[in-house]
User: Fold N-(5'-phosphoribosyl)anthranilate isomerase from Singulisphaera acidiphila.
Amino acid sequence: DWVGLNFHPGSPRRVDPALAAEIVAALPRTTEAVGLFVDRPPDEVAALADRIGLGIVQLHGQEPPEDLGRLGHLRLVRAFRIGSADAVAAMVAYLRRAEDLGRGPDEVLVDAYVPGCDGGTGQAIADHLFPLLPPLPRLILAGGLTPENVAERVARVRPWMVDVASGVESAPGQKDPDRVVAFIQAARSAVSTAP
Ligand SMILES: O=C(O)c1ccccc1N[C@@H]1O[C@H](COP(=O)(O)O)[C@@H](O)[C@H]1O
Assistant:
């Protein structure tokens, strides 16, 4: 449904803006492009999104709640790296603050916390942390998903969407088309067989 374009310079998945524009132009109308950023100034994010034609951006760093209002015209996915109960509490406080400022994220993404890493780690959120999450109607589950485990994780967590990076690759940054297809089929099968 969505294709992620990673603009984080530290990532093996980083895509050059010119290539990203070509990818966006080639997408079917039913597929949305999401730009992933880590701690970039809002003006820079907005300018790149407008230039490339991105309607959705994923903020995957320490961006403050105030940044959301500066990106008001874009659909915003805010990622939180969850490694403890304190991290869940910090996420809840962040979301309250953003609402108070008049602009919460459109979707909340939860990813594993791995010290020193921004994301794309292939690590999963610990199971005991999920019951601590507040109700999030548009929860995107990420972190360590693969074609082999996504159905079980979807059945257990019941997210609105799932997101995968390293779990469908043959090497860092190299998507494996067979694994991408297998992932989508497994994720959809979990939804269609849900009681
Ligand atoms: O994929 C990356 O390299 C990346 C870099 C910096 C921030 C986020 C990144 N990816 C996001 O991380 C999660 C989990 O990825 P994985 O499936 O465990 O490899 C996901 O939301 C990616 O979009």
